[in-house]
Amino acid sequence: MGTGSLKNHLMDLVNQLKLNQSVEFIDEGSQRRVRNLISESHFVISSSQHENNPVVLIEAIACGKPIIATSCGGPEDIVNETNGLLAKINDPEDLSQKMLQMINNYDPQKIRADFEKRFSSMVITPRIIALYKEVIAEHQLKFSCKNR
Question: Considering the entire predicted model, what is its pTM?
């Protein structure tokens, strides 16, 4: 799902390999469509070369699905031994090995618990509120110092 500069190349490759019955390209999806696709999958793969905040990985673990992602900046903060594996960038062999390792190797309940512990609104909301309070306090301090 998504678009990118390699989409046409990948579509041609799927045609050449006669994988049209197994691969579907989807440009965009509603939140419900993404959730349904993740729920129907065995695991989610993000093979990006650069990602700073791959939300799809968090969405996957929220659904109890294991993840495979490339070590490209952001996934390292999400992927752990409970929910998935990290692969090398631009290394199809490593990625395929991780896919083989992934099959039937993760517990959906543990993955969901990992999500709840690290990314649920019960955890994130207090952090965001504390951050806002900190920024407001800093701003008020700077503002009061300027007016003296």
Answer: 0.73
